Each structure stands twice: as C-alpha cells, then as structure tokens.
Amino acid sequence: MEVNGYTIEPEANLRAANLPKANLRKADLTKANLWMAKLPEANLTGSNLSLANLRGANLSEAHLAGANLSFANFFSANLTGADLFGADFFGANFFRATFLETTLIEANLTGANLGKADLFNANLIRSNLTGARFNKAYLVGANLGGANLTAVQLRLAILPEANLRGAILSGVDLVGTNLRGANLTKANLIKSNLWMAKLPGADLTESNLSWANLRGANLSWATLRGANLSWANLSWATPKRNIFGANLRGADLAGANLRETNLTGALADKHTVWPEGFNPAAAGVISK
User: What are the b/e assignments for 158-186, b being 16+ CB within 10 Å?
Assistant: First the structure.
C-alpha cells in the first residue's frame, strides 16, 4: 500500500514521514518506525500500530478510534485533540506525551506509562487505566468519570478540578497528589495511599475511603458527607494539613486513626460515626 509516496506495511521505516491528513484506515503498521512522523489529522481508525515507534510524532487531531497501539512508544508525542475512542494502548509508553483536550473515552491504557504527560481537559470517561503510571502527570480539568484506576500510580500528579466521579481508585498510589477541588463523589478509594495528598475543597460525598492512608493529607473544607472512612488513617494533621471545616455529616469514621488530627470547625451530625471513645466536641467539631 502506497500513501504519499510512502510504503505502508509492517516494520515500515517512516522516520520523519510527512503524512498530514493521510488515509491510513485499518493500515497494518506493526513495529513500524514513525519517529518524528507528521500525522496531523491523519485517519488511522482501526489501524494496527502495536510495537510501533512514534517517539516525538505529531498526531494532533488524528483519528485513532479502535486502533491497536499496544506497547507502542509515544515518548513526547503530540496527541492534542486526537480521537482515541476505544483504542487499545495496553503497555504503551506516553512519557511526556501531550493530550490536550484529547478524547480517550473507553480507551484501554492498562499498564501504560503516562509519567509527566500533559492531559489538560482530556476526556477519559469509562477508560481502563488499571496499573497505569501517571506519576507527575498534569491532569487539570481531566474527566475520569467512571474510569477504572485500580492499582494506578498517581504520585505527585496534578488533578485539581478533575472529574473522578464514581472512579475505581482502590489501592491507588496518590502520595502527594494535588486533588484540590476535584470531584470524587462515590469514588472507590479503598486502601488507597493518599499520604500528604492535597484535597482542600474536594467533593468526596459517599466515597469509600475505608482503610485508606490519609496521613498528613489536607482535607480542609472538603465534602465527606456520607463517606466511608472506617479504619482510615487520618493521623498527623497539622494546621496546614487538616480536616478544618470539612463536612463530615453522615460519614463513618469507625476505627479511624484521628491522632493529632485537626478537626476544628468540621461539621458533623447525629449520623456521623466516630471511633470508640472519641470526643468530637473536644476536638472542635460542630454538630448540627
């Protein structure tokens, strides 16, 4: 198959190839070398790019819906505005890649490396991110509603205002992660590691944080109405890292570790469950 003078085939050498708006629908480019290739607005719908080298490639506004990109290398690639609906990126490398306002709805990113990737306003609704690595990734405004983030690494990632409503985050590494103002309503955070995480103003209504590690986390003014915090570790909360002013109405804190936790101004009600022997009034909790 010839396109713009280039031979399109498995293991093809398309290094720095110029293929803007090229029609590569269902093309087989397994193990192809597309290093620094120019593919803006290209149609790669249903194509096979597994194990391909796309390091530094320009795929802005490209169409990759349903494509197989498993174990492909996208190091520093540009995928701004691309359509990746339902694409398979199992084990792919996206370190430092750019996904500005990219569509990744229902995409499979299991085991993918997205360290330091820029996913500003990316749409990852219902995507499978099991075991993916987002360490130090930029996810401001990203939509992860209903996504599966089981065993994901989000250490030091930046997610303020991100939508994680109903997301599965059980066992996730969120050490030092910035989730300021994020929507985590009904999220599953069982046994997640949120040590020193930044969650001021976050909405955790009816979320499940049982057995989670929130040691030193900042939950000031966060909404935890109806949340399950049973046996969670909320200890060592300094004035800068606290639960000051948080809404704990209806929350379950049975067995939680509240040692040195700052609960001044936190709101509770008769439905709030406290650890045995804990005196909320003495801790500065306001019961209404």
Answer: bbbbbbbbbbbbbbbbbbbbbbbbbbbbb
